[in-house]
Write a structure and sequence with these properties.
Blueprint lengths: L20 H22 L2 H8 L3 H7 L3 H16 L8 H17 L1 H13 L3 H28 L9 H19 L5 H12 L12
Length: about 210
C-alpha cells in the first residue's frame, strides 16, 4: 500500500524514526493490518508500534490517540482508493462512486471506516473527528458533482444536495454493514434514478 503524505520533520529517537515518511508509512500500514486482524478494541498503540518496528513514543509524536491515527489511515486510503470521477455526467459519476464505495467498505482499508463508524456511536469525540476530518470533506466532493449536474441542466435546480447524498449512501452502507446483501449495478441504478431523477409524485412534501 503506497502512501505519499509527508509528516513534519521530527527529531529521531528510534532507528526507524529518523526516516520520516518511511516511518509514517510503516505506522499507517501497520495500523491498517492490526485493525483488520484484531478489531478496534484490541488494536493498541503498542501493537501498532511493534508491527511497524518503531517505538510507541514515535507514534505519539505524530498522533494523539489510536482514533487519531486510524483517521489518518482512513484519509490516506480513501484518497488513494476513492478519487472523484468526472465523466461529464453526474448520474454516471455518482453511480460509479457508489459501486466503488461499496467495494471499498469490503476491503481491508474500508474496515477502518467501519470500525470508526461503530466507535462513533458511543464516543462523541470520535464521532466529531470522523465528521470533520473525513465525512465532510468527502461529502463536499460529492456536492460538487451534484452542483455540476445542476449547472449542466442534468439535475433539477431545487435538488437538495445533502438530502440526496444521504438517500444515496445510506442504503449502500446499510446493505454492506447490516444485511450483507450485494450492492450491484441494478441496485445502484435504481437508487440513482430514484434520488436524482424522481417522478413528480416522488419529490416529497414541499419545503417550508
Amino acid at each position: 500500500m503506497l502512501r505519499t503524505v509527508t509528516p513534519p520533520t521530527r527529531a529521531a529517537s528510534h532507528p526507524t524514526a529518523g526516516r520520516g515518511p518511511r516511518a509514517r508509512a510503516a505506522i499507517l500500514e501497520a495500523a491498517d493490518d492490526v485493525l483488520v486482524e484484531k478489531g478496534f478494541t484490541a488494536t493498541t498503540i503498542e501493537g501498532i508500534a511493534a508491527r511497524a518496528g518503531v517505538a510507541k513514543q514515535t507514534i505519539y509524536r505524530w498522533w494523539s490517540s489510536k482514533a487519531d491515527l486510524l483517521l489518518d489511515c482512513l484519509i490516506d486510503d480513501a484518497g488513494q482508493d476513492l478519487p472523484p470521477f468526472d465523466t461529464g455526467s453526474s448520474t454516471e459519476d455518482l453511480s460509479r462512486e457508489l459501486l466503488r464505495f461499496a467495494e471499498f467498505l469490503e476491503q481491508p482499508a474500508g474496515r477502518v471506516l467501519r470500525a470508526l463508524i461503530g466507535e462513533a456511536q458511543h464516543d462523541p469525540t470520535i464521532a466529531q473527528q470522523l465528521r470533520t476530518r473525513y465525512l465532510e470533506p468527502r461529502r463536499e466532493l460529492d456536492r460538487e458533482i451534484l452542483q455540476h449536474g445542476i449547472a449542466r441542466g442534468e439535475l433539477a435546480t431545487d435538488l437538495n444536495a445533502d438530502d440526496a447524498l444521504d438517500a444515496l449512501y445510506g442504503p449502500v452502507i446499510y446493505r454492506v454493514i447490516v444485511t450483507d446483501r450485494p450492492v450491484h449495478d441494478r441496485f445502484v441504478a435504481y437508487l440513482v434514478e430514484s434520488v436524482l431523477h424522481p417522478r413528480p409524485a416522488d419529490r416529497g412534501p414541499p419545503r417550508r
